[in-house]
Design brief:
CATH architecture of chain B: 3-Layer(aba) Sandwich
Strand order of the largest sheet of chain A: 1-2
CATH topology of chain A: ABC transporter involved in vitamin B12 uptake, BtuC
Largest sheet of chain A: 2 strands, antiparallel
Helix content of chain A: 55-70%
Number of helices of chain B: 10
Largest sheet of chain B: 6 strands, mixed
Order of helices and strands of chain B: EEEHEEHEHHHHEHEHEEHH
Distance between the termini of chain B: 35 Å
CATH architecture of chain A: Orthogonal Bundle
Helix content of chain B: 25-40%
Number of domains of chain A: 1
Number of domains of chain B: 1
Number of strands of chain A: 6
Radius of gyration of chain B: 17 Å
CATH class of chain A: Mainly Alpha
Strand content of chain A: under 5%
Structural class of chain B: alpha/beta
Order of helices and strands of chain A: HHHHHEEHHHEHHHHEHHEEHHH
Radius of gyration of chain A: 24 Å
Number of strands of chain B: 10
Oligomer: heterodimer
Largest interface: A-B, 33 and 43 residues
């Protein structure tokens, strides 16, 4: 986060001490001071940053061209849904970005969180436990399943772990689908209770017609998750994750229990996913097995990769951007192309009418293209963490230097 | 304990209780019988070297001792307790420090962060401060480069970092796996000088080497390993004079 340490690292070993310090313009000094101040008060920075984003977003959508795409209310509802994916992505980032474990079945924990809420607060189970404690319950249940899956599988490495998690991600919705008696099978569980604030702040209940409380709630959950994850990243455990990602054997030689440390990453990732599941289920008021397929796992992973593995803000931004492109952008692109009135043209035996293309159908093709382009042009993601950037972009100078020294040695 | 604690003078007849004792260790990689009955002792205050050609089982022996692998049969005792099946991360807190083969430093962490990883299990700030000073005194280059990424260091510096990082675990027994690998003769001299210094500061050392000449120069005793078996164990002085050892390992 702090620019100070970044500058220090790049200056290290270049013998800068011998040179006179470069003269910095006043604005950069001021910026550095603000940066240092914010670096010291990370939690306040997070809350402030998210509050600013949350305050600006509803205003931005009132401006052209966005105001032509829908009402502010529509957008707020969409932002609340985007928040679910932000939570999914920052949780998956713990597993993939921090600990370097490839999890392709992440949606399973999302499903477990959602179904936990469905059990806790629906006519199907007869229970009506309030939303707020259920948030915690969902997170705990999901993290328990994270441990359950992780304990036998985390001894596997790389590709094998990816395959096992992929399998788990497929199994969970199938189990929910086929356990009619307990999950109402393919029909899913409907009529889930919506959160209530019991008249606090003059809000009695969250309704379908008013997305604002959901929006504020998801921003608050994200803020708490951010603070927690940032603390974790800077903690001893966070350093252990980096060590395991770099070299598991060396990490074990340093006294790190690699199995429990990886398990912790898995269960923390799962619990964030569980939180997202509870929120998602309460907003939609229905859960069914088809909501938690591989595409959810894949989308979350694409968000992490595109946003910049390891960087919490980057991953969150990546998730938001990807979600909005998927839900709004493609639709608008379709109507835009349609409005151009491009005449139908013949391509050999095919006749192509650009105006009739539904871009939403091409969503995954576009994901694929975007991912390929990213891997070629900017493999560290749009907003990379400092460490990841250094992992993927060794400067030619550094490479030449270390080769040269190896030859000398 | 008759082992010399100070200068690395050869000990002819180490007595007392061994710090480390491996007894009839058999280890496998799948079906490959890599260690076929290794028995060795390391006494407190010694430098012991394990010599042998590529594939003789030197690294496997070290990994078995440090808990990164476990033997199928046989026992390993360290400091009076059975550690045969204790995992590596627990052995670190008991006093086994391992600088693994190929250095394996954390390339994207800075030198300082690498050393901090070495101190991962430790919490006593004052002791840590002392140990940082100790490592920087042994390897002044590491202090100069403390904010540089580990992966950008030269081979010799990386080896220094690997040893320094293992020292940060404050080991009673330091396991070094081929510290001379890929280094120029001058750097090899420097590394072995440091091994002497570390020993003089009171750490027992078990060093695996292919460079028998250097290793027998600092060690008190040595073992010769061939295809998973110990074929010879003697004082370093005797090994240096053994005609077969001279022929096979010392280029004589």
């Amino acid at each position: 986060m702090s620019g100070g340490s970044r500058a220090e690292t790049s200056a290290g070993g270049t013998g800068q001490a011998r040179n006179a310090p470069p003269v910095r313009p006043a604005w950069r000094l001021a910026l550095a001071r603000v940066d240092a101040l914010l670096g010291r008060h990370q939690s306040i920075t997070i809350v402030l940053g998210l509050a600013i984003v949350a305050a600006l977003l509803p205003q931005i959508v009132l401006l052209p061209p966005f105001n032509g795409f829908g009402t502010q209310k529509d957008f707020i509802g969409g932002f609340a849904d985007a928040g679910v994916f932000v939570l999914l992505a920052i949780g998956l980032n713990v597993v993939v970005g921090f600990a370097g474990l490839l999890d392709l079945g992440y949606a399973a924990f999302f499903a477990i969180g959602a179904y936990t809420y469905a059990y806790g607060a629906s006519p199907f189970s007869g229970l009506d436990i309030p939303f707020w404690p259920m948030l915690l319950v969902g997170a705990i249940v999901a993290s328990m399943f994270g441990v359950l899956l992780g304990a036998p599988t985390l001894r596997l490495r790389g590709d094998y772990l990816a395959i096992v998690t992929l399998g788990f991600g497929e199994i969970v919705p199938v189990v929910f689908l086929n356990s009619d008696k307990y999950t109402n099978g393919t029909n899913g569980i409907v009529g889930l209770s919506q959160p209530s604030l019991y008249g606090l702040f003059g809000i009695s209940g969250f309704g379908f017609t008013n997305p604002w409380p959901y929006f504020v709630t998801v921003v608050a959950i994200i803020a708490v998750a951010f603070i927690f994850l940032y603390r974790l990243q800077d903690s001893r455990i966070g350093r252990a994750w980096v060590a395991i990602r770099e070299d598991e054997l060396a990490a074990a030689s340093m006294g790190i229990n690699t199995v429990t440390t990886k398990l912790l990453a898995f269960s923390i990732g799962a619990s964030t996913s569980g939180l997202a599941g509870v929120f998602y289920a309460s907003k939609l008021s229905i859960v069914s097995p088809d909501q938690f397929g591989f595409t959810v796992s894949f989308t979350a992973l694409a968000m992490v990769v595109l946003g910049g593995m390891g960087n919490i803000w980057g991953v969150a931004a990546g998730a938001f951007v990807v979600y909005e492109i998927q839900s709004q952008g493609l639709k608008q692109l379709g109507s835009f192309v349609q409005s151009l009135n491009v005449p139908t043209f013949a391509l050999g035996p095919l006749s192509v009418n650009l105006g009739s293309i539904n871009f939403i159908n091409f969503q995954y093709l576009l994901y694929g293209l975007a991912l390929v382009a990213m891997m070629l042009l900017r493999p560290e993601g749009l907003f990379p963490s400092r460490r990841r950037r250094s992992e993927l972009h060794e400067t030619p100078d550094e490479a030449a230097e270390s080769n040269e020294e190896l030859v000398q040695a | 304990m008759t082992a010399a604690a100070g200068a690395p003078a050869p000990v002819d007849n180490p007595g007392g209780v061994p710090l480390l004792r491996a007894h009839d260790i058999h280890a496998y990689y799948g079906h490959i019988h890599a260690l076929q009955g290794i028995t060795l002792d390391v006494f407190p205050g010694e430098i012991v070297t394990l010599l042998g050609a590529n594939g003789a089982g030197k690294t496997t022996t070290l990994r078995t001792i440090s808990g990164l692998m476990h033997p199928r049969t046989g026992t390993i005792t360290f400091d009076g307790t059975d550690i045969t099946h204790v995992p590596a991360h627990r052995l670190v807190t008991r006093g086994v420090g391992h600088a693994p083969e190929g250095r394996r430093i954390f390339g994207r962490m800075t030198v300082l962060e690498n050393l901090q990883m070495g101190a991962y299990t430790r919490h006593n700030k004052a002791e840590l401060e002392m140990d940082f000073d100790r490592v920087f005194a042994l390897f002044p280059r590491l202090r100069e480069r403390s904010s540089q990424a580990g992966g950008t260091l030269s081979g010799g510096e990386q080896q220094m970092l690997a040893i320094g990082r293992a020292l940060m675990t404050r080991p009673k027994l330091l396991l070094l796996d081929e510290p001379s690998m890929g280094l120029s003769p001058i750097l090899v001299e420097q590394i072995f000088d440091v091994i002497r210094d570390i020993h003089a500061q009171g750490t027992t050392v078990l060093v695996v080497e292919q460079n028998a000449l250097m290793a027998l120069g600092v060690a008190h005793r040595g073992y010769i390993l061939q295809t998973g078996r110990i074929v010879l164990g003697d004082t370093a002085a005797n090994l240096r004079q053994n005609p077969e050892v001279q022929k096979a390992y010392l280029g004589g």
